[in-house]
Amino acid sequence: MARPRIPTAKRPECPKGHNGDIWLDGFYSRGEFHERPRFVCVPRLDPHTRKRSPFHPDGSTAHKFIEPLPRRHPNANHPHGGRACVECEHLLDRHEGPQTTRRQVFTIREAARALVAVGEGRSMRQASEAARDTAQRFVTDRWGQRKPSPHGQLSADQLAMFGSVVRDALMAAEWPDAVALDETSFDLTITETDDQGDKVSHPGSVSILGIYGYQAGRGSGRAIRLAARGGADRIEWEAVLRSRKGEPTWVVCDQGKAVMAAVKRAWPNATIYICEAHLRMLGEQRLAADGFDRFHPLWRSLRKAIPKRDAWIVFEQEVRDAGATQTLAWIRDARPLMDHQWAIREDDRPHSIGGLETVFQEVVRRLGDRRFVFRNRARLELVFDLMALDLAKEANDLRYREIIRTHLLRNAGRPTRKRRALDDHGGSSLHHAVREVEARLKRRREQNARAQRAHLDRLRKSGKARTRTPSRRARNVRQSSR
Question: Does 1 have pLDDT greater than 80?
């Protein structure tokens, strides 16, 4: 039997659009410490006859419903204040209380807090345990004590349902006008099954392909994409570059063949600018090989020479006077590239990938020893993106909460992705990605070896085979050693 209607109480609107009376119809989903209100929509009382029709104007009868985002209320058994709110000690009315998704006891606030915690570097187990503790979801351990379970599946489910929603809302769907590209890697243990059905493990490496974006093409930037891939070859780079719309006009990267080939294929109209810090590092290696430590004035001259042609000429003369043969050989080899760099250089454009280096160091530090246990590639990429949002000062509970609430209201209170949407359901997608890249590189090396052998056989048959002459760099090294 429905409770009598209290005129002053606030009530939700009927989901079917009826202009009826909304009554509280008890509570549903009664747990140990929480309950959620249920409502019933009945036809309005006729003011003339003072009688209530059994039917709404559309012919339907009274019906029960719940809000799109039901409110979670503490019941009388709640250990912290009974029916009063845990935070403000206010006795909640039927229209008050934290909102939850349909068929879930955990609130939107707890889901948002779990995503923030994962972005801060906390493990899935730690984030899940904190959410269960807030929701008073306890289990009894072997000692008879009531504690929240540390199982990490809860945070993994919330990451699957809402992680991509938060990322898509706070990260642009198109590439900005200028980007910087770089990659790093971390080790992990690859587990697979051999021909006899036994599990074997061997070390592997996962690459993090990072993209640092400058929205206006200038000024300060932020990490906008951190992709976990099985390697950093051209195919993987090209897949990441094509994952969003748009084409930058300015791309900063190092001299890696894979990334430069991918940029030319995915963004053919972009201007490629080689990172000045990378060029300076190559020059410093040559100076160190010539016996000049980092306190030598040539190191300061090199730093000034990278961005300006006049300073480069002065640096070249200083190197020649100092007798640094290896550095002088590098200067001659790099001069065509430097002429191109000076011709296209714009002072207000980004010139280095140093911002990504800082992001990589922090991300790997937050992974810590947990990097050896990651097995799901899509989940790891979402963790990277949440870390990038946290490093960009975009992560906080309120912002995530509003994004999740808007998403749920747009879909009748239900997430568009299921809780186990990211699960691999057997095997490991991350290990599979590493094995796929390793197999591709192995085939490429075998093809190159066969092509080299065929070329040498053709030279041998034609009588044109000759011994390999030393390169100019090798000749310079030999002369300097004398």
Answer: no
